Amino acid sequence: MLLALKRRIYRHLLRDPHYDFLFDPPSPAEVVSVDCETTGLSRSKDDIVAVAAIRIRGNRILSSERFEATVKPGVRLKADAIKVHRLREQDVVSGRPMDEVLPELLRFIGSRTLVGFYLEFDVAMLNKHVRRLLGIELPNEQIEVSGIYYRRKYGGAPPGTQVDLRFTSILTDLGLPLLDQHDAYSDALMTAMMYLKLRDLEARDVKIARQRARPVTWYGGG
Fold first, then answer.
1. pLDDT per position as a tens digit, 71-120
2. What is the pTM of this model?
3. What sign does the dihedral 34-36-42-45 (CA atoms) show?
């Protein structure tokens, strides 16, 4: 209900009617896995250096129908970020500005539901540019894969259960391959694989096994 109200408000505030397609009814058969690499982890101060999106139709990842772009950021790369995604200043200086990339990305995504890992951060980084272009934020529904994983593995867990929601841990637990992590396309692809595996488990109401705590052995003195 809240999302529907938000979409109505955003549609009224939309600055450019050419993007009215963002408010078309989303297809239940298609979603889009999205990933961004950034200059750092500050939502207010950092910027996007790479973005990728892959469509998922039914149970198929349409890797041939993908969007990829290296972006020339508006701020300098941080050293810690370079160590993570290995994109250097000389790699992004020839990238396209986000003002050029964003319209293409929006047309690729359309009104489809967005799927991601730590998706809130990626969407926040995109929304900085969407607000400048359209005067609104992305109206798309969002699915966080770690949320599905948490429900399948830790839902109903006793207090004190150790929770591990790391990207690599989820991949390993689901028996999925680890590709070139922190590359926008590879991360979007791995997230798409997570989503399909988790959606299948959820549809069959299958829980992911938790490691049982080792029993404590008491040794008496004597």
1. 988 767 665 655 455 565 656 667 899 999 999 999 999 999 999 999 99
2. 0.88
3. negative
Q: What distance in Å separates the CA atoms of residue 178 and residue 167, rounded to the nearest whole number?
A: 10
Per-domain residue ranges for the chain? 11-203
> DSSP code of 180?
S
Q: Where are the alpha helices (DSSP H) in the chain?
A: 2-13, 79-85, 89-92, 98-109, 119-134, 145-154, 167-173, 184-203
CA atoms within 13 A on the CB side of 148: 25
* Percentage above 90 pLDDT, the chain: 70
Encode pLDDT of 134-165 as tens digits.
999 999 999 999 999 999 999 989 988 999 99
Long-range contacts of 209-214 (CB under 8 A, 24+ apart): 209/153, 210/153, 210/154, 210/157, 210/161
Residue 221 confidence class, pLDDT cut points 50, 70, 90: very low
- Considering the four listed CATH numbers 2.40.30.10, 3.30.420.10, 3.90.226.10, 3.30.465.10, the one that applies to the domain covering 11-203 is 3.30.420.10
* Cα 93 to Cα 90: distance, rounded to the nearest angstrom: 5
Dmax over Cα atoms in the chain, in whole Å? 83
In this structure, are strands 113-116 and 30-38 parallel, antiparallel, or unpaired?
parallel
Specify burial of residue 22 (Cβ count, 10 A radius: 0-12, 13-18, 19+): buried
